[in-house]
Each structure stands twice: as structure tokens, then as C-alpha cells.
Design a protein that fits this description.
Elements lengths: L2 E5 L3 E3 L4 E8 L7 E7 L6 E6 L5 E3 L7 E6 L4 E6 L8 E8 L13 E2 L3 E6 L1
Parallel strand pairs: 2-11
Antiparallel strand pairs: 1-3, 3-8, 4-5, 4-9, 5-6, 7-8, 9-10, 9-11
Length: 123
């Protein structure tokens, strides 16, 4: 069974940086589509970005230029690095995977989710 576990969330000051990790386990790992999402209290879940089999990435406009998604295949770990953090980046951050899709990840069916890691940005 595919499992995802996020970590790295923290409370930081505005302007700071964080790197979130997402470890993939319990599945024959391959470079399938992975997405990062976030959800703030009282708001709908928002897509942050995706990474495909060729490590091509997409980003939401709200984080473009401040976020970088990458992966370390040897460690079966995905990363979301964010800098110039703003209070509006405060949210629970989730990684999600579609193990049956490797490209065009914006159309992926992200059926496997982690439990999330909390990011809080104070002004």
C-alpha cells in the first residue's frame, strides 16, 4: 500500500524559508506524479504544484517564484521548498501521489495522501 508522510512544517516569521519533505513508502517506487497541496482553516484545498517523471514542475500562481518542488529518488523523498514566506502561506501542507500517472500531472488523480504538516507564518 502506497504511503506518504510529510514533515518539516514549522512556525516561521514572514520572509523566512522552509523545506517540507514527503517520504514515499509501501510501494514499488517510480517517478510517478506527485503534487503538493495546502489547506488553510476555513478555505478550500489549494494546489501548490506538481512534479512529473522527468522532474518537470508546475506551480500555482500564488507560490510561483517562491516555491521549488524536487525529488530524491534514492531516498524516495519529495521536497517542497518555499522562501519569502507570507502569512497567507499558513496552512496544512499535504503531498499526494498518482502512482499510475507519470506525465501531465495537472490531470492526475491524486488518490493517495499523507497526513499533512503544518506551516504557520507570522507577520
Amino acid at each position: 500500500q502506497l504511503r506518504l508522510e510529510e514533515s518539516g512544517g514549522d512556525s516561521v516569521q514572514a520572509g523566512g524559508s522552509l523545506r517540507l519533505s514527503c517520504v514515499v513508502s509501501g510501494y514499488s517506487y517510480s517517478r510517478f506524479c506527485v503534487g503538493w497541496f495546502r489547506q488553510s482553516q476555513g478555505k478550500e484545498r489549494e494546489g501548490v504544484g506538481t512534479i512529473d517523471s522527468d522532474d518537470r514542475t508546475t506551480y500555482a500562481d500564488s507560490v510561483k517564484g517562491r516555491a521549488t518542488i524536487s525529488r530524491n529518488n534514492a531516498q524516495k523523498t519529495l521536497y517542497l521548498e518555499m522562501n519569502s514566506l507570507k502569512p497567507e502561506d499558513t496552512a496544512m501542507y499535504y503531498c499526494a501521489a498518482d502512482p499510475y500517472r507519470h506525465y501531465a500531472c495537472s490531470g492526475a488523480d491524486f488518490g493517495h495522501w499523507g497526513q499533512g504538516t503544518q506551516v504557520t507564518v507570522s507577520s
